[in-house]
Design brief:
Blueprint lengths: L13 E7 L13 E7 L4 E9 L4 E2 L3 E13 L6 E7 L3 E7 L3 E5 L7 E7 L9 E2 L3 E7 L12 E9 L11 E9 L2 E9 L9 E13 L6 E5 L4 E7 L3 E6 L2 E6 L12 E7 L6 E9 L11 E7 L3 E2 L1 E8 L3 E2 L3 E10 L9 E6 L4 E7 L3 E6 L2 E6 L8 E10 L6 E9 L3 E2 L6 E9 L1 E13 L3 E13 L6 E6 L4 E7 L3 E6 L2 E6 L8 E10 L6 E8 L4 E7 L16 H10 L3 E2 L3 E2 L1
Parallel strand pairs: 4-13, 23-33, 25-34
Antiparallel strand pairs: 1-2, 3-5, 5-10, 5-11, 6-9, 6-12, 7-11, 8-9, 12-13, 14-15, 15-20, 16-19, 16-21, 17-20, 18-19, 21-22, 24-26, 26-31, 27-30, 27-32, 28-31, 29-30, 32-34, 35-36, 35-45, 36-41, 37-40, 37-42, 38-41, 39-40, 42-43, 43-44
């Protein structure tokens, strides 16, 4: 008869088995009809452990999850405590565990690795021919693991299972799971500058920042920066970096590996901004590493640099005619030049505050648009001006009386661009202005006798300006008269033959009148009427006529005796004024 001992019977248990025989035949001795046999129970549980992970190779810095499968092939139950010991190699550290009933404790890592002990708790046994609850361990591969230093480029994880129950085959209690280790370092670079510090002729600093998003440590990190034309190399440096340059090419090598999640000290690249960089350049830097980089898109950073213009605008101003004349137009020619380092993109503005006496008429020039608001004239060239370029426009003005005796017209040029020499941005153009005035002469016969005739001559300035040179009156005496002197303050008369020239040498204000009396004698035998005309230079001519008396009764402004109506008509006819307007 064969019997099976239960798998759960404890080791060392004694089991007594009693058998009895009986018969119906009389005479049997019952004392020997029963016998008992006792056996001593010896337990054995053939535990085995299988260890695996998914995903094949893992990169330094990544996590790996190991699945540990424990099986009891019996014949006995595996008594508590069932313990799995996982010895992690150097380069792996414990992160976490999962598994119903399992409790895992990790020891402090040491130079030989880290031991993780997992116990199936609660006094649980593993029944014969059954599996233990699933157990999974998650571990971290150190980011600085170098596959080149590993055997076959692998980290091998070893785990063993034990139980108080004797294991008839301990060789399957341990399993090793090699993990091929790769490296992957996602480097990124950014390049920036302070836009407010960009200026032609000045130094400009670029900041290059390199970061490692891992998961692995990056080795052999280097940065290259090929400066564009317009940026001149000055220096490149950074803590922990060794930088060199060859012309426009800059190369910086990081002295040590860059850890996962770390940022290297920034690199400072200093350049000199040349005029050829205007209006802008793109500066590109690239980071590289001997560690495989899974993302190449962030290995390059381009920093666009907007370079402000730097100009030297100059302005000139001239006019025609010289001198100007009140009542006529004058033309200013305004020239603008750019002697700066760069083109001026515009707009370029010329402001001209016309002095009193000048009135805006028009502004014309290629690319220029002019408008006036009162005396303020603004002319704009939207297209700007290239370096070494010149442009001009003409400003036409009406010259008014207030411009006399002279004006100074000032124009200023400006633009939004930096102007390195503001001292040539203003042009002043002085002009002499001749006055406009109207001199009118009025001549009357003051008195006449048989021997003398006195003539009143008055010169009036109708303006609008003063007559700065006074007045010049000429009187061509008729044959019946001879010059006999003058009376009048400020006047001087000189006779050459019959031509009498009288000069007033003081300015005559607009609206003022100045006069004198011209004395003449009558030649012997003169009779009838006498007509005398006088002309003011640049002005009008006036005549007066009188009748020579036949006796010694002098004419003092009335109608001479004997002249009658004919004399009156003759005198009236002499009052005709011929006026003209002149410009000095």
């Amino acid at each position: 008869m064969h019997a099976t001992v239960g798998s759960g019977v404890a080791d060392g248990t004694s089991i007594a088995n009693t058998a009895s025989v009986s018969t119906s035949t009389p005479g049997d001795d019952p004392d020997d009809n029963t016998d008992t046999a006792t056996i001593q129970v010896h337990t054995e549980a053939d535990l085995s452990l299988a260890k695996s992970h998914t995903g094949g190779a893992s990169a330094a810095g990544e996590q790996v999850t190991f699945d540990l499968a424990v099986h009891n092939a019996g014949p006995s139950d595996a008594a508590a405590d069932v313990v799995v010991t996982d010895t992690l190699p150097v380069g792996m550290t414990y992160v976490s565990s999962t598994g119903t009933g399992w409790t895992c404790v990790a020891a402090t890592p040491d130079p030989s690795g880290q031991v993780v002990t997992c116990t199936l708790g609660g006094g649980s046994t593993i029944l014969a021919d059954t599996d233990a609850p699933a157990l999974a361990l998650t571990v971290q591969i150190a980011s600085d693991v170098d596959p080149d230093t590993l055997v076959d480029g692998q980290l091998t994880n070893t785990a063993s299972v034990t139980s108080p129950t004797t294991d008839p085959d301990p060789d399957n209690n341990t399993d090793r799971d090699p993990v091929p280790v790769t490296t992957s370092a996602d480097l990124a670079i950014t390049k920036t500058h302070d836009a407010s510090s960009v200026r032609v002729g000045d130094h400009l600093e670029f900041t290059l920042q390199v970061t490692n998003a891992g998961p692995s440590t990056a080795r052999g990190v280097s940065v290259s920066d090929d400066l564009p034309a317009g940026l001149e190399y000055v220096s490149a440096s950074g803590t922990g970096w060794t930088c060199t340059n060859a012309g426009q090419s800059i190369s910086c090598d990081l002295d040590d590996p860059l850890d996962n999640g770390a940022s290297a000290a920034p690199i400072t690249v200093v350049v000199n901004v040349l005029a050829s960089a205007f209006p802008g350049v793109d500066n590109t830097a690239t980071v590289d590493t001997t560690t495989p980089d899974p993302v190449s898109a962030n290995n390059t950073s381009t920093d666009p640099v907007s370079v402000p213009p730097q100009v030297d605008l100059g302005i000139t101003k001239s006019h025609t005619p010289e001198p100007m004349q009140v009542g006529q137009q004058a033309t200013y020619t305004i020239g603008v030049s750019n002697a700066g380092n760069t083109d001026d993109p515009g707009p370029i503005t010329v402001n001209d505050a016309l002095p009193t006496g000048l009135t805006f008429v028009s502004g014309i020039g290629d690319g220029w648009t002019c408008a006036a608001s009162g005396q303020d004239v603004t002319c704009v060239r939207a297209a700007g001006l290239v370096v070494t370029g010149n442009t001009s426009f003409e400003l036409v003005v009406e010259v008014g009386p207030e411009a006399y005796p002279g004006v100074t017209n000032t124009a200023t040029v400006s633009s939004p661009a930096e102007d390195t020499n503001p001292f040539n941005n203003v042009a002043r153009d002085p002009a002499t202005v001749l006055p406009l005035y109207e001199l009118v002469i009025d001549k009357n016969l003051k008195s006449i006798s048989t021997s003398h005739a006195d003539w009143t001559i008055t010169v009036t300035n109708n303006g609008p300006n003063e007559s700065p040179g006074g007045a010049l009156v000429t009187d061509e005496l008729p044959g019946k008269l001879r010059y006999d002197g003058w009376t009048g303050d400020g006047w001087t008369c000189v006779a050459t033959g019959q031509l009498v020239t009288c000069t007033y040498d003081q300015a005559i204000a607009a609206g003022d009148s100045v006069g004198f009396v011209l004395h003449t004698t009558l030649v012997d035998g003169a009779s009838g009427t006498v007509t005398n005309s006088a002309t003011v230079e640049g002005g009008t001519t006036d005549s007066a006529t009188g009748t020579i008396p036949t006796d010694n009764l002098a004419y003092t402004g009335g109608i001479a005796t004997g002249a009658g109506l004919l004399g009156l008509l003759l005198v009236g006819g002499g009052l005709l004024l011929i006026r003209t307007r002149r410009r000095a």
